[in-house]
Amino acid sequence: MKMPDRLSNRFILISLVSGFFSLIVAVGAAMWGLSQSQEIGRLVSHTYEVEQAILQFRGLTERVESARRGYLLDPADDLLATLDDAVTSRTAVMDRIGSLTSDNPVQIDALATLRTRSAAHLDQITRSIALRRTEGPEAAQAAFAAAGRDILNELRETARRMSEEEQRLLLTRRESQEEGIALSYILLAVSGILLLLVAAVTSVSLRQNFRDVKRSRDTLRDLNDNLETAVLMRTADLQRANDEIQRFAYIVSHDLRSPLVNVMGFTSELDAVVKPLAELIEKVDVEAPALVTEEVRLAVREDLPEAIGFIRSSTQKMDRLINAILRLSREGRRVITPEPLDVGTMLDGIVDSMQHRLTEVGAEVEIEKPLPKIVSDRVAVEQILSNLVENAVKYLKPGRPGRVVVRAKRAAGRVVFEVEDNGRGIDPKDHERIFDLFRRSGAQDQPGEGIGLAHVRALAYRLGGTISCESSLGEGATFRLSMPPQFQLNKEGAK
């Protein structure tokens, strides 16, 4: 009994070694064939590149000739500039052809002829232009017809022969490429057969390893359970840190409001004093003008009211910013309450509430129904979509009828809402910047403090989603909200 088992094991080992050795040889041969095919493919691509350069040279030659003829008929400066540009480009293309064909003796000889004919052609053009300036168009045409046309024809013929040489090379290389591909397929097929044979032999030994695999799987499951616990603990730590940040923002906002209220109060008192002080200056100016200097008059009549106005506008802006921070802080502490949502009906309500504004700016909002139903927080989803639609209507492009389209689709187990507009668009470098707090993009000709999109992103994150923007200036913008179709509360609850 032991001898057959030993022979069997030896046979399996020999089969495995032989199979893998054959597989290595076949794969090596296949790789060689593939590398040969790639090399031929590179040569084919090189041939196309050379032919393209020759075609470009021929086109520039015709452009030079057209510019020359045009200048002889009408000696305009723009035609002369076109001629110079074409000559310069043609020289550059010849240099490129030279670098591409440096390993081809036939093309090297043809290129030398091409350069000689090009120089002669340019010399004839220069002479005809000089004659056009001194003796008129007839003399210039006659001088060019005497020798220039023959040079031009030789130039065209040389370029044509070079193209034919590249076509010949292309045909040869294509045939070699097809042969290499066929050989690669054969080698790959042989490799596949050898692989199947090796797989059949190794299946015997794999059965013996099932027990070890099961043991490893059980160990991996234990590790995953520990990892999940660690992730939950880390999430809880992050949640506590986030709560602490929100409490800090709330406290700081309240602390900032107290001195701000004092500044606003004293500004009002200063504003109330300005009027009687101005009246007193007016009275003194009438009764005893020598007592009031021009500096005092300007201070009371202009400088003081202007300074109070600056202080008031600044305190009002700071008050709005503090209110924004407070709103974001309160929203961060609000408990998420998931429920089934009909997003189509929700959007209908948003559009109805904006109908007056839409009529005023001449815009329309289209909702592509049906929209997927989701289970999430009603307030958060409504705030996100309302903000995106309102922004689309707010930043329309002047002179273009506004159109906003809202659509949704399912992708990779998530629901993606899109709000697309044809407004003035957003510079690509600002696509991430606009989601930062108090940051705005483009012309600041619309009211706002730069908190809307920051609020939208914060809400999207809380719902397990993301928000992104795709736009370019003058071409409108598309905002995409990707979120799970059903919000899942973590083990500590949504906070």
From TrEMBL:
TM regions (residue ranges): 12-34, 182-206
Phosphoprotein recorded as keyword: yes
Pfam family, one: HATPase_c
Matching CDD domains: HisKA, HK9-like_sensor
Swiss-Prot/TrEMBL keywords: Kinase, Membrane, Phosphoprotein, Transferase, Transmembrane, Transmembrane helix
One GO biological process term: osmosensory signaling via phosphorelay pathway
PANTHER family, per database record: BACTERIOPHYTOCHROME (PTHR42878:SF15), TWO-COMPONENT HISTIDINE KINASE (PTHR42878)
One of the record's GO molecular function terms: phosphorelay response regulator activity
Catalyses which reaction(s): ATP + protein L-histidine = ADP + protein N-phospho-L-histidine
Enzyme kind, highest EC tier: transferase
Span of domain Histidine kinase: 251-487
InterPro entries attached to this UniProt entry: BphY/WalK/GraS-like, CHASE3, HATPase_C_sf, HATPase_dom, His_kinase_dom, HisK_dim/P_dom, HisK_dim/P_sf, Sig_transdc_His_kin-like_C
Name by which UniProt lists this protein: histidine kinase
Matches recorded under Gene3D superfamilies: 1.10.287.130, Histidine kinase-like ATPase, C-terminal domain
Keyword Kinase belongs to the record: yes
Enzyme Commission numbers on file: 2.7.13.3
Native source organism of the sequence: Aureimonas glaciei
